[in-house]
């Protein structure tokens, strides 16, 4: 199909047959081609001097032809990315109900602090004497994290949650090897409902993964754990609150069983946002736990970084915390960069430098502005909001683990959609038409057709009421047999439903110019 300019409409473009326009634009909803379609390889909006002569050092692998990147003026570049941003959905657009991801509001105060001179431009290779303020900030953040978790040490350097998992498990492996059990303790227990990064992390560093079976109540039971314990077990990786949105009631008993067996307890801290100020994981018996600063302490989430996943360690693992770390020296704070300079037995280094300073600033600004009572209230409000949604939808949606109260996220399954002709995916796509990003779908895997919703503490009652009303309207529409509302959705997004399976299995990674079209005869 062509628009009035004779240009093919984009595949899957929404509303192309309704009131067509000459440009293809629909008022503020503007069609935006690829940069390769609107740019010109022979021009650029930036003046660059010709480089001085030099000898390449790429061993004959340097590019022989022009790079072929499209050139645009500054206004064209700005318009392109602004228009793309208007097609996107973010936490600043509306309620973002992704479960397990905790898309909470990023306070602008935090952003302002991260941009302060002397912080935003700090460099990891500066002399220590010139970054005493940065080191003090890192030291204070570390103190807060240890206080909130009831632990003895923390490594700030991991760059994200999975990286933090790797750090914590490497500390456990180092502790096991220090006891001379490196060749015998090689099994890690992972609940079937765990985040997929848990078994991947354990396997990455040489452990054998054994699953802990899921029960119908959504909890991990200490009796199931004990059946798997033996001299070959190194650790358990348990999420608490878990990925089903429930607090593990036997967590203390599980920790004791692991310790009695000579093993360690790694806690996935992805859901720490539900218990900050209410419970200290260290008091529950954990030995290591990563903290997603973006989930718990309001640093930006997504976009590939920059991220931060600090890891707190118990007294048993504190000696193995990696370098670098901050400590008090004779001439002020210093950064211990090398293993031989540490008084304990660090397992090595987990990343090149000390981590992402901007994330540290944002997290500490969140902590200081909230205080202990404010962080506790944030946890309480996150749990309250999730249970408010659970109560508001419980008569229409089915809950896989009964009507027990949830923590910061509520989990539904697709039992209620049986015989409607509507799937979890269909329902999620229809949410897009209502102006909402879909909830987390099909996770955790132990629940069929899972719908995991996490409103966080950021949302007001009025925002929750509208969200609940929208989902109730969709649910009643599905039960009335109005399947067209779902199976063709989204109708109003910039693009219609795509073949996501085909896109994942057969991705097109390179743009090629379309074949030239012959002009129509006069």
TrEMBL record:
This is glycine dehydrogenase (aminomethyl-transferring). GO terms for biological process: glycine decarboxylation via glycine cleavage system. The keyword Oxidoreductase applies. It comes from Microvirga alba. Signal peptide: none annotated. One of its GO terms (cellular component) is cytosol. Its EC number is 1.4.4.2. InterPro entries: Aminotrans_V_dom, GDC-P_C, GDC_P, PyrdxlP-dep_Trfase, PyrdxlP-dep_Trfase_major, PyrdxlP-dep_Trfase_small. The lineage of its organism: Bacteria, Pseudomonadati, Pseudomonadota, Alphaproteobacteria, Hyphomicrobiales.
């Amino acid at each position: 199909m062509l628009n009035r300019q004779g240009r093919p409409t984009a595949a899957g473009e929404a509303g192309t047959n309704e009131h067509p326009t000459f440009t293809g634009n629909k008022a503020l909803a503007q069609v935006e081609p690829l940069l390769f379609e609107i740019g010109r390889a022979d021009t650029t909006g930036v003046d660059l001097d010709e480089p001085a002569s030099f000898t390449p050092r790429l061993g004959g692998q340097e590019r022989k032809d022009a790079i072929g990147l499209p050139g645009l003026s500054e206004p064209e570049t700005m318009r392109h990315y602004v228009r793309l941003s208007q097609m996107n959905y973010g936490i600043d657009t509306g309620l973002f109900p992704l479960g397990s991801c905790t898309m909470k509001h990023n306070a602008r105060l935090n952003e302002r602090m991260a941009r302060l001179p002397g912080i935003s431009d700090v460099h990891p290779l500066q002399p220590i004497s010139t970054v005493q303020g940065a080191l003090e900030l890192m030291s204070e953040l570390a103190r807060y994290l240890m206080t909130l978790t009831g632990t003895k040490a923390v490594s700030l350097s991991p760059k994200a949650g999975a990286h933090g998992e790797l750090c914590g498990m490497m500390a456990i492996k180092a502790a096991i090897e220090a006891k001379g059990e490196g060749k015998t303790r090689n099994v890690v227990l992972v609940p079937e409902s765990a985040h997929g990064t848990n078994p991947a992390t354990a396997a990455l560093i040489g452990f054998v993964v054994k699953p802990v079976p899921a029960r119908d109540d959504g909890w991990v039971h200490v009796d199931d754990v004990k059946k798997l314990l033996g001299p070959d077990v190194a650790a358990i990786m348990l999420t608490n609150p878990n990925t089903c949105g429930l607090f593990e009631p036997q967590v203390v008993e599980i920790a004791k069983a692991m310790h009695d067996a000579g093993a360690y307890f790694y806690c996935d801290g992805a859901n720490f946002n539900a218990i900050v100020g209410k419970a200290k994981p260290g008091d529950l018996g954990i030995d290591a736990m990563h903290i997603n600063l973006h989930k718990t302490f309001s640093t930006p989430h997504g976009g590939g970084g920059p991220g931060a996943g600090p890891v707190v360690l118990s007294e048993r693992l504190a000696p193995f915390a990696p370098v670098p770390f901050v400590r008090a020296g004779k001439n002020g704070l210093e950064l211990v960069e090398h293993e031989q300079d540490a008084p304990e037995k660090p397992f090595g280094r987990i990343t090149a430098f000390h981590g992402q300073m901007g994330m540290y600033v944002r997290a500490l600004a969140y902590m200081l502005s909230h205080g202990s009572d404010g962080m506790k209230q944030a946890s309480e409000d996150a749990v309250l909001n999730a249970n408010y949604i659970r109560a508001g939808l419980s008569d229409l949606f089915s809950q896989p683990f009964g009507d027990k109260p949830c923590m910061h996220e509520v989990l539904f399954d697709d039992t209620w959609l049986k015989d409607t002709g509507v799937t979890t995916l269909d329902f999620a796509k229809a949410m897009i038409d209502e102006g909402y990003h879909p909830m987390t779908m099909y996770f955790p895997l132990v629940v069929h057709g899972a719908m995991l919703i996490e409103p966080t503490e950021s949302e007001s009652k009025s925002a929750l009421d509208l969200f609940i009303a929208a989902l109730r309207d969709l649910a009643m529409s599905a039960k009335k047999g109005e399947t067209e509302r779902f199976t063709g959705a989204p109708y109003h997004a910039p693009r219609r439903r795509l073949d996501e399976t085909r896109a994942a299995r057969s991705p097109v990674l390179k743009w090629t110019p379309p074949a030239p079209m012959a002009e129509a005869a006069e």
